[in-house]
Specification:
By secondary structure, this protein is mostly helical. The chain has one domain. Helices cover 66% and strands 2% of the residues. The chain has a two-stranded antiparallel sheet with strand order 1-2. Bound molecules: NADP nicotinamide-adenine-dinucleotide phosphate. NADP nicotinamide-adenine-dinucleotide phosphate binds next to α11, α12 and α13.
Length: 316
Amino acid sequence: MDSVSGLLATLGVDDLSPAEWCQVFFIVSAGCVFMIQVLPDDMRSALMDYGARRAKPSQASAEKTKAQAPSQGFFDVLTSYGQLPHSWFIHFYIASVLWSIFWGWQFMSKGSLMRTMAEMQHRSQSPEVDLTGTLVAWLLMSYQGVRRLFECIFVTKPGSSPMWFVHWVLGLAYYTATGVSVWIHGSRAILQSWESPQPIHFTPQIIIGAAVFGFAGAQQNHCHSHLAGLKKYTLPNEGWFKYLICPHYTFECILYLSLAVVAAPAGCMVNRSVLCALVFVLTNLGATAYGTKAWYADKFGAGKLAGKWTMIPFVF
Ligand SMILES: NC(=O)c1ccc[n+]([C@@H]2O[C@H](COP(=O)([O-])OP(=O)(O)OC[C@H]3O[C@@H](n4cnc5c(N)ncnc54)[C@H](OP(=O)(O)O)[C@@H]3O)[C@@H](O)[C@H]2O)c1
């Protein structure tokens, strides 16, 4: 135990608050994804591509590819181990919903884990979110988890494409850290509400942020429905897909941006921990969208993608 605290002290992270631990996780993960982007394309693709981008070729084209392909690189061999079904994405939303229920139950029951973390966070004296912003952010995150879970069960068309176990582990860790990030900056308000009732008031910032969140969620649902209605694998070309290659990723970024606005401390535009989550989402989905564009260009021809943005209109 002493050696663990010694190591943390050497690294200068022994007195990080729970929010700062979440921020470190998001930024280090985003940094790793970013560094993978500078690798040669075949290595990047072996480490990053999952889902349809990595789908097994049909028997006939597999034989053709085998005859033409150069020998596999180290990362192809490495990532050929531990491939799981892409449909295991559902575990992320089960985890997200379970964390939302757990933290909701901790709040209602004045639970010891929430109290310990809230006291640690409160001691760090970082800017605090009021009770309304904290509860609305928690509710929105719960809603997002439930919606995505329902989409996985009732909307998504089953496929057989794979995902590397590292993506699966990272996804579970991401939803664990996000579950904490949405309430941790409201620690003081939570502790105070356990002593005496706290006022609930909806600021324009919370209302606008929640409205944008609702809009982005509805649009993302349309995108997922369109993908589910396609023959696997064809080029999506309806709705937002007319303008963007991965609009479902665009709306994911808007969801987290609006969540960061809702959960902002008084006098701030955004919640720092949720903003760090957004940095991770932007990096991760940006890299995946890049892989999607390359896959579509290869499969359908670059001309079919002309005039479409990859993920962020006018930027990327
Ligand atoms: N917060 C985060 O860090 C994070 C990270 C990743 C994803 N997400 C979110 O999770 C959601 C799903 O992401 P994803 O990366 O799994 O999306 P995706 O790779 O586009 O796949 C979504 C679904 O659409 C199917 N699909 C994709 N392209 C298709 C095509 N051309 N034709 C027919 N079907 C197609 C896939 O089939 P297969 O199952 O057969 O592949 C899968 O069922 C997105 O909204 C994304 O924003 C969030």
